[in-house]
Structure formats: C-alpha cells, structure tokens
Amino acid sequence: MTALLAAERTALSLLPAPLLRTLPAAVAENVRRVRAGTGARIMAVVKADGYGHGAVAVARAAVDAGAEWLGVTDVAEAAALRDAGLTERILSWLNPAGVDAVEAAAHGVDIAVGSVEELRRLVADAESPLRVHLHLDTGMSREGCPLDDWPELLRVARQGRGRVEVVGVMGHLPCADEGDPRANEAAVLRMRQARDAVLRAGFGPLLVHLAATAGALTDPATHFDLVRIGAGLVGIDPSESIALTGASRFTASVVHSSSVPAGTPIGYGRTHLTTRPTCLAVIGVGYADGIPREVGEGASVEIGGARHPLVGRVSMDQIVVDTGDALFPRGTTATVFGPEGGAVPSVQEWARWAGTIPHTIVTGIGARVQRSIA
Ligand SMILES: *Cc1c(COP(=O)(O)O)cnc(C)c1O
Fold this sequence. Notes:
Elements: E1 4-6, H1 23-36, E2 41-45, H2 47-51, H3 55-64, E3 69-72, H4 75-83, E4 89-92, H5 101-106, E5 109-113, H6 116-125, E6 130-135, H7 150-159, E7 164-170, H8 185-200, E8 207-209, H9 213-218, E9 226-229, E10 249-260, E11 265-266, E12 272-273, E13 278-283, E14 300-303, E15 306-311, E16 319-324, E17 333-337, H10 347-354, H11 358-363, E18 370-372
Helix pairs in contact: 1-3, 6-7
C-alpha cells in the first residue's frame, strides 16, 4: 500500500522545516495551549485509537506534556494502554459491552457509571474496590444518569461502599462547540447540584469533570477539576476558536500520470469532462483509505508545492487529480492533508469539502494505511 499516515519531518522536504512537527511535538503543543487557559488537570482522551492517530502514541505524548489522566470508552482500550506501560489513572465511560468489574479493577481502571442498574451490577460483581465516577446526564440524553435518579444512585453507592468507591462526578456538554458560555449554563448548574448532593451523601474528595476540548478552550465555568481533551490533542478545535497544531500528515503516491485532450471523461459515471488539454495524476488512495466519497467543490491534494483539484468520483482505491501543465512521474508524493497550511490541505478543509466534521476525517483513515510515528 502506498498511503501513509505520518508525522514525519521527511514527508515534505519542500516546506520550511520550522513548520513541521512530529506527532509528540504537535500533541505537546496542543496540551500546552489547553493548559494555558485552565488551572484544571488534563485528561487525554484517546478513544477510537487516539482519533485515528494511535492511542498509545497520543497518550504517551500527552502524558509527557503533562496530562495526568487518560480517557477511553471501554476497558479493552484501557487494557491496551496498560499493556503499553502507561501507569496514569484511566477512566472508561460508555462501556457498551458492559464492564467486567474484576478485570477493570485488575487493570486499575476507573469506571463511569450512568445508571442505577449499572451501579447495582458493579456492586454485585466487584471483588476488590472498584473506583467509579458517577456520570450525570447534563443535557445529552446519551450516557449519563438523569438528575431524577441521582438520589437512588447515591443510595446504591452508599450501600455498595467497600465494593465501589465514588471518586468522581462527570458530565458531558451538549453545546460546547458554540463558543457561547450561555449554552453551557444549565449543564454547569446541574453539575453543581449533583456534586453537592454527592458531597452531602458523605462521599469525597471528588474529582469533578464536565468539559471536553470546546469547553476547555471557550468556557472556564465548565472546567471544574479536570478537562477531558480528545480532538484537541490531534489539532482539532470543535469551537474553531483557536489554532491548534495538526498532528498528522497523510501522504500517498502518484501511481499513474498522463496528458489528455479536452473532453476526456474521468472516473465512474464519467461525471467530469476535461475542459482543455491537461495532465492527470492518479493517486493510490480512495474511500477505503478514508478519502470521503462525498467531497464537493474545492477538494484537492498537494503535489510539488501546489494544489491540484480532484476530478471525477472518488473510487475505492484511487482518486484522479488535474495537474494542469505539470506531469508528475509515478512515485511522486501527494499530500492529502498535513499541518503546515499553504498548498497542503488541512483536515478542517477536507471536513468542509465533505460536509462533515474533522473528527470523521481522522477517525475514518482506513486500516490499510500505514501509520508511522515520528
Ligand atoms: C469523546 C469524549 C470527550 C473528548 O471530546 P473532544 O471534543 O474530542 O475533546 C470527552 N468526554 C466524553 C464523554 C467523550 O465521549
């Protein structure tokens, strides 16, 4: 396979060196930007394989840069981090397949509990004390316990003392990417009420956490004791309020090039006809590698220091770009996206071209794309 998801200094020698960062350096820079705006601790959220960048690599880089917690969505993801030697506290929420309380305790994983039923099951199953964070529904109607059930949750937690240890209270913001603190007011209020109830029930000290990247960057009222940063680590700010550093570069090779006359049809359905004599380059990546098939006007890749537009449909394994007067030999590197700007498209641009969010671009990179970490 010719494609490569990399953060290598060598990938594009045409660009000025100071603009290039290794993955750990980019993650560290992003952690520092978050740190500059909060006194709260930082949890590095590395679910979905570190947003497509490699969970262990992103976790290590974030921890080296000062993150004190790691966050995942199930115990298997947490176990992989432990196997890689990471010793920080890890919180797992969601746990779609349920939690094996014994396994979670064995790996030293904290579990977020979003319902009375889940907590009852953990109390029944735990053999050694399991650390839990009570997860409040702060307006998403997704995971999280409704405030109405909170008193019952606390009753079960009190009865389960010795088997479960309440160490945290957690919520998640529905609208933090609006960059408008008023959008978060109701959630912050609910969070305070829920925390106070937990303290009154005799638990504490508590680690209270609500904000993800957008809240961390835009609204200090949401920070409490810890902020959970996922997208921000790899350079995505959902609030688009500050410039973070992209942590990856996606390159692929020209596999074929040709000069064609005006009126040449390109790709499935012959949806594009060349309007003038031009050169084409076929790049060896397609939707199976994460190039969104839905891209519209503007989608392009960088080759030889300039942008060249995609023409015709995205195929499973290939795209075709119009390179104008330039004929690029087989093996020439094309950059699909990278952090440096200019002719190199960003992940954010791909998201706009595809009518989606940057998260789906990075988590959608295909399994056959080689990952290399620099
Ligand atoms: C994914 C997730 C995060 C991280 O969100 P980002 O916007 O990527 O920083 C934080 N908290 C919860 C509950 C999540 O599911």
